[in-house]
Amino acid sequence: MSKPYEIIIGLEVHVQLLTESKLFCGCSTKFGAAPNTQTCAVCTGTPGALPVMNREAYRLAVKAALGLNCQIATFTKWDRKSYYYPDLPKGYQISQYDQPLSYDGYLDILDPENEEQTRRIGIIRAHLEEDAGKSMHDEVAGKADSRIDLNRTGTPLLEIVSQPDMRSPAEAKNYLTELKLLLNYLNVSDCNMQEGSLRVDANINLHIDTPGGKVATPIVEVKNMNSFRAVERALAYEAERQWEVWQETRQKLGDVPKQTRGWDEGAQITRGQRSKEESSDYRYFPDPDLVPVTMTEEAIEEIRRSLGELPARLRERLVEEYGITAYDSDVLVNQGRSLVDYFVTVADRCGDGKTAANWIQQSVLRTLNEGQIGIDRFPVSAEALADLIKAVLAGKMETSRGREVLARMTETGETAAEAMKGLGIAAVDESELEALCAELLAANPKVVEDVKQGKLKAAASLIGQAKKKNPNVNATRVREICLQLIEQM
Amino acid sequence: MSLTALSACDLLAKLDASEVTSAEVTGAFLDRIEAHDGRIGAFLRVDAEAALAQAAAIDQKRKAGNPVGRLGGLPVAVKDLLATEGEVTTCGSRILENFRPPYNATVIEKIRAADGVILGKTNMDEFAMGGSTENSAYQLTRNPWDTTRIPGGSSGGAAAAVAAGMAPLSVGSDTGGSIRAPAGWCGITGLKPTYGRVSRYGLVAFASSLDQIGPLAQTVPDTALLLEVLAGHDPKDSTSVNLPVPRYAETVNQPLKGLRLGIVPEHFGEGLDGEVEKAVREAVAVYESLGATVREVSMPHSKYTVATYYIIAPCEASSNLARYDGVHYGYRTDVKQVAADLEAERKKYEDAGDAAAVENLDSVLVRMYRKTRSEGFGPEVKRRIMLGTYALSAGYYNAYYLKALKVRRLIRQDFDRAFQQVDVIAGPVTPTAAYPIGDKVDDPLAMYLCDLYTATTNLAGIAALSIPCGFSSEGLPIGLHLQAPPFEEERLLRGAAMFQRATDWHLKRPDLGGE
User: Fold this and answer.
1) Could you read off the pLDDT of B116-168 as tens digits, one per residue?
2) Strand A5-16 with A198-210, pairing
3) Cα separation, B500 vs B477, whole angstroms
């Protein structure tokens, strides 16, 4: 990067928590129901109805915050954030303003410049709030019909605010990837951007080197990004745009009000949205309908004990305990906890972590990717795969033959032994193998001659012929026996 | 003696003894409403048919020997801010003129479960904002003792209904005195329970941290009976407190031995009418004659009550009332008219070449919000929304709302200190007797000052009640205000019942004529 500036990025991520019911009422949070069928007096803001906090949502939020290495507040309260919008039926959102449930955490992410290293991104705070409804705008042909679906209203949202610690769009993408992985491991959110269970707003500006010292450009908030890829592209576009604007206008931070820009996926550009004042007046005040939440140290510790092993630690452990490379460990861990569990079972049973990692990456993951399925729907159990690998390691068949067996197991659901039998794979005994080799040598005097001359490579053609005659032969053994026999000639 | 002249407890005894049926009792009160409410205006809606049907069902139950609920078929009037499923609930506001809640308030469920017969919905100041019921968008309610005067508010309909013998029991709500002030001015008993004692679920909110539902009745035992039905923890209201409900009605007639009564010197200062002061001091003397000791307790922060209250309550109200946008329920302005108006305005600006004005024109949605709220809310409600919105704005929050919360804590500390020395605090409910209708309509500040003694109870979150303790020279009732520590409703009721056994102010009835 030869440009004389540094990119400064901070992300605000909203994730929906995996609760059965909403944050302040008993309505279902299930995605995809017919509009306005998952509502009640409370989440539609019907006069007189009152919110009651969902304890499970709070527990999940604390779990996520602990995973993000945050401090957990032992006392928090709920605040009302007031604004008018058609999908906000009460005219305010219940959120947490000055006393978030957690603060001062961090997330270690892969450094895109050097994948061997990590970068630590600070977390300012993570707090719980209720989601608003969904507005669907139909602006076709000048019609300005808007429809409101309140199913989503009141769904628990965890807002995770990072420090402006990211220095490139690639880092922002790595942050999101790692965050999503962590939340999946914690089982607190499914982080599905398409269904809106994870939403990202980015704040970005440049620190430009000038003869007078470093100058910050105005911070821009970028919204409307629908994939991690879009976040990366939007930020790359926005950095370039801000650089150009700087060169034209020399506008510094504070010269203009904070701008909000939306990412246009079709045009691959950001577009200016309504300009907002430095701080909108949301008239926050404590919600008198809800009581403050207190957490004891014991309760926090109990949640901490439920975290399980998290990705960063797991990556290290797989390298240490199974002797696999950092790269392999990364690939496995990034697939999620159930794949790691699968790997561990295979590796433990077959006794060879490296080989297990190879098989899973080369065969299992390919099948999963092709079928767009998760490991839970993969038809070959970890035990069955381990048995197959054991058979290969014991020399009962070649690796390539083993892959055929796995393909058959995947298709039929057979055990390793059944599939091997089905494919006619049987160990070839030594005397049979020697007879076959002798037969080949007799039929290929030219090869024998070449080998005697020291051209050991010539033996390769013998292996091919041996496999044709009996697909079960072990190539290495054929080669060894042939060379031995030639020496004796 | 006619049925409507009896106390709720006496009626209940007759019902339990099958001397009368609930249908007869209910019919008697419906007749009385029919005869007098045209003039009093206590009820916004009476559903005679539903009430009689409910009464008949209870009579059936009793006849069949099945257990009957605590209220045993007694009629109850309900303030029109309690959600009644499928029944219009207006909160005294035009903006809710056609609002039919999809659910029942918890207290409505409790009254029904206790076999209380719901007579109808009573009039109130719009969104419970006001002290005279003159802010109702629908009608005036008149004081049964002098129909040229206000009944007090905001539970003016609730109090007038009981005072006029049109209901033996009535449910109101009290945010700054809205049960106690009208009870005092109408010569009946009204109790504001401790914050959290009664579920607010289904109470259309005015100021959530101050609102509390409570009973109004002729006598203290009647009040105790209804409180027993209303009180209790509700999982649907996080601010309701999980404490057992004492059997108030059973203990109410046990006198408090060695009662230590507190008098707050700050309550007998400027603005207090001489006749009211005299009646209150005589009431205190009655307690002394009953063996109580009396001492002064200082409440140094009580002088900030009105200022504190009129910041906190409007702040919460401005937020609670943000939801009335004409979309989901209630009143909505004529949207076609809005669109036509905007089109005309656009044309006007375009013809004038005023591009900026065209640019700044409201969307139909925004104009619909503006017009709906401007037509749907009355002036007092708008005033409080503006006060609250202003006080919560960035830059003012610390100076107003936060400061008010701090003073609120100091007021509570005044009470905590006082209740270390005394069991119950006695004083006036309001500075004067009921004033003439229209007297303070143009002077909101004068009206706010009437909350001086009562709003402090709500700020502190404690329990208080009002009982009749005399009459002015014009024949208007004067109330005695008794305050007790949080969740000491039992003490409050027993202390008040002592007074009523020694006096007969609560037995006086206004003459409505035509009898």
Assistant:
1) 999 999 999 999 999 999 999 999 999 999 999 999 999 999 999 999 999 99
2) antiparallel
3) 15
Would you call B103 and A51 a contact, using CB atoms and an 8 Å cutoff?
Answer: no
pLDDT higher than 50, residue A276: no
**Residue B514 pLDDT class (50, 70, 90 cuts):** low
Mean of pLDDT values over B490-515: 94
Domain assignment present for residue B386? The answer is no
Active-site choice (B22, B178, B302, B466): B178
Residue B399 lies in a domain: no
Per-residue pLDDT at A140: 58
For residues B49 and A112, give the distance between their C-alpha atoms in angstroms, rounded to a whole number: 76
Task: Print the domain residue range for A357.
Answer: 309-422
Residue A59 lies in a domain: yes
pLDDT per residue as tens digits for the range B193-218: 999 999 999 999 999 999 999 999 99
Share of residues in chain B with pLDDT > 90 (%): 95
Does B360 lie in the same domain as B414?
no
User: With contacts defined as CB-CB under 8 Å, which chain A residues touch B201?
Assistant: 48-50
Buried b (16+ CB within 10 A) or exposed e, A307-335: eeebbbebbeebbeebebeeebbbbbbbb
Q: In angstroms, rounded to a whole number, what is the distance separating the alpha carbons of residues A106 and B254?
A: 63
Tokens 């409900």 locate to B245
Residue A290 contacts B, CB cutoff 8 Å: yes
* Residue B154 appears among annotated catalytic residues: yes
A407 lies in the same domain as A464: no
CA pair distance B416, B413, nearest whole angstrom:
5
Residue A288 domain flag: yes
User: Which residues neighbour A84 within 8 Å (Cβ) at sequence distance 6 or greater?
Assistant: A91, B322, B325, B369
Cβ separation of B315 and A285 shorter than 8 Å? yes
Do B327 and A45 make contact, defined as CB atoms within 8 angstroms? no
Nearest to B103 among A41, A92, A284 (CB): A41
Query: Residue A443: pLDDT above 90?
Result: no
List beta partners, residue A361: none
* Residue of chain A whose Cα is closest to the Cα of B241: A291
Q: Which two tokens stand for residue A204?
A: 């970005």
Nearest residue on chain B to A290, alpha-carbon basis: B238
Choose among B204, B235, B392: nearest Cβ to A283.
Answer: B392
Cβ–Cβ of B393/A48 closer than 8 Å? no
Tens of pLDDT, residue by residue over B250-302, are 999 999 999 999 999 999 988 899 999 999 999 999 999 999 999 999 999 99
Assess whether the previous peptide bond of B302 is cis (omega < 30° from 0).
no
Q: Name the residue type at position B349.
A: Y
The 10s digit of each residue's pLDDT in B374-421 is 999 999 999 999 999 999 998 899 999 999 999 999 999 999 999 999
- My answer on whether B128 and B256 are in the same domain is yes
**Domain co-membership, A382 together with A484:** no
Cβ of B238 within 8 Å of Cβ of A48? The answer is no
CB B401 within 8 A of CB B391: yes
**Cβ-proximal residues to B332 (8 Å cutoff; 6+ apart), any chain:** B326, B368, B372
* CB proximity under 8 Å: A 36-65 to B: 41, 44-53
Cα separation, B46 vs B49, in Å, equals: 9
* Per-residue confidence band for A145, with pLDDT thresholds at 50, 70 and 90: confident
Q: How far is CA A307 from the centre of its chain?
A: 17
- Is the ipTM beyond the 0.90 threshold? yes
Q: A92–B91: do the CB atoms touch at under 8 Å? A: no
Is the Cβ of B203 closer than 8 Å to some Cβ of chain A? yes
Comparing CB atoms, the residue among A45, A53, A84 nearest residue B369 is A84
Has B278 been annotated as catalytic?
Answer: no
CB neighbour burial string for B293-320, b if at least 16 within 10 angstroms, e if fewer: eeeebebebbebbbebbbbbbbbbbbbb
B136 to chain A, minimum CA–CA distance in Å? Answer: 18
